[in-house]
Amino acid sequence: MRQKIVNTSATAALEQLISELGEMFTEINTAFTQCRLSLKYKQTTDDSAKQIR
């Protein structure tokens, strides 16, 4: 088994990058989910309004 010697500053930078990517993914996922939910709510209310008329 080969072992690689990793610079500790490089490791810290990679951990920071991975953390930021995780936060970005969470924000995108939340925005997408909220948008889909709001679109579904809008479609439902539009359908209800049509039925009332």
From TrEMBL:
It comes from the Bacteria. This is Uncharacterized protein.
